[in-house]
Specification:
By secondary structure, the chain is an alpha/beta fold. It has twelve helices and 16 strands. The longest helix has 17 residues.
Length: about 325
């Protein structure tokens, strides 16, 4: 999955195969920009502060966030330094075109989280974790087998039991357990950084609230499901995010974790519908109706509102961030 997705993002336009929330609604990015503003204020308004995004795609989320920050909090806009974690040179070029002129900060790109300069940081990550490579383990009899891909088909080799939270996973005969080691490493490194240097991070992705067995690897090509083993590097590969495991990794590093909460609840609490109504009032009826339908798609339980979850990772001294109140 790792090599295939690296080739995919390096050579293809992912938004021909799937559409993310920032591409659907400008209000989504604006809401996250205002969330970052409140978090920055709760940290004591550090200057400078790193405003980072992991997996920034076309730069749409960051562009909308920066516009909202510039309007609502000029002091924050002056203090922030934009940091983008992006390995694709092709996407970096698209992001530069989108973001140039929207910030007083120079744009900085990094291959990894550890490359971001030291200092307080607010990180946004929408549909970032689901694209990281997973390992699949299958419970067979009294032991475990790990799946590998060879000649376009799965092969199984004996393996040690997959670990969750320091414990061997429980599974019935034939059940699949997925482990995303890069996501756990990212959460651990992030938690340690936030504990020491201050700040917060927001993850928005899809998956169950609690760890669950089962196979979730899927591929999308031209908006339709595809065979994940066919034509490596042509389709987008994703898997459900194990939010419980991510939270445990961040907590083990000393960070405070809030959530996950459903995307619908989070966006509604932060005023997505109110902002969308305000935008709709400035548009002709057909465009206004489309805006409202998009907001419903992001928040309704039978669409993206329930499947997608939101998780915050924070410095231990920060108050509960917006959207996570009891």
């Amino acid at each position: 999955m790792g090599r295939a997705n690296a080739a995919y993002y390096a050579t293809r336009d992912p938004f021909a195969d799937f559409t993310t929330a920032p591409e659907l609604s400008q209000a989504f990015g604006e809401i996250l920009g205002l969330w970052a503003t409140i978090v920055w204020q709760s940290t004591g308004c550090p200057d400078p502060v790193m405003l980072a995004e992991a997996g920034p795609g076309r730069g749409t989320l960051m562009a909308d966030a920066l516009r909202a920050i510039d309007r609502a909090a000029p002091d924050f806009a002056a203090a922030l330094r934009v940091q983008l974690v992006e390995t694709s040179q092709r996407l970096r070029g698209i992001q530069e075109k989108k973001l140039s002129g929207l910030t007083r900060s120079l744009l900085h790109w990094h291959d990894t989280l550890s490359d971001i300069p030291t200092g307080p940081m607010i990180l946004l990550a929408n549909e970032f974790l689901d694209a990281l490579p997973i390992r699949q383990f299958v419970h067979r009899g009294a032991g475990w087998m790990e799946r590998f891909v060879k000649a376009g088909a799965f092969r199984e080799c004996p393996a040690d039991p997959p670990m969750r939270g320091g414990r061997a996973s429980d599974a019935g005969e034939g059940e699949v357990v997925e482990i995303c080691e890069p996501a756990l490493a990212f959460a651990g490194e992030l938690g340690q950084r936030l504990r020491v240097q201050g700040g917060a991070a927001l993850f928005i992705d899809y998956g169950p609230e609690n760890s669950a067995n089962g196979e979730s690897l899927q591929a999308l090509r031209d908006g339709d499901p595809a065979d994940p083993l066919a034509n490596p590097g042509i389709a987008d590969l994703t898997a459900h995010v194990d939010f419980s495991a991510i939270a445990d990794a961040a907590r083990a590093a000393g960070a405070l974790v809030h959530g996950p909460v459903t995307q619908g609840r989070f966006l509604t609490r932060l005023g997505l519908m109110h902002r969308t109504i305000a935008l709709a009032r400035t548009q002709p009826p057909r465009q206004a109706s489309a805006l409202m339908q998009t907001a419903q798609r992001l928040t309704e339980p039978d669409q993206m509102g329930q499947l997608f979850k939101v998780l915050a990772v924070c410095h231990p001294g920060l108050p509960i961030p917006p959207g996570f109140e009891a």
